[in-house]
Specification:
Layout (H helix, E strand, L loop, with lengths): L5 H29 L5 H25 L4 H22 L17 H5 L3
């Protein structure tokens, strides 16, 4: 068995991070723009298919690298997870300013009555 190089692991980590940025950045962009579209379902389905296709293709390419491909793939998954954490911490919530938050002191019947 050959020892896997640190360069290959770093490549896997960087590739996974890039795939995560593409996936979660595309999801963020879709949610921000598709809500106002005429046919939001097409935007969400099309975006999902495109994002999943890109990520699947990217991880498939990681498996094709020489050496211990499962270790490189694991590094790629770690990079993808790190991108997810970064996206949830850094990107603003798209609907946070438009969704009213109910006052916890109000009762349920008061929320449904028109003003």
């Amino acid at each position: 068995m050959s020892e896997i190089s640190n360069q290959a692991l770093m490549l896997g980590l960087a590739a996974g991070f890039l795939l995560g940025v593409i996936f979660f950045g595309g999801l963020w962009w879709t949610v921000r723009n598709a809500v106002a579209a005429r046919r939001p379902a097409l935007w969400f389905i099309g975006s999902m298919m495109l994002r999943i296709s890109i990520v699947t293709w990217g991880f498939y390419l990681l498996l094709d690298l020489s050496g211990s491909s499962w270790k490189i793939l694991l590094a790629g998954l770690l990079g993808f997870f790190i991108a997810r954490l970064a996206a949830t911490r850094l990107l603003p919530a798209p609907l946070s300013k438009t969704v009213p938050i109910a006052d916890p002191s109000m009762e349920k019947t008061e929320l449904n009555q028109p003003r």
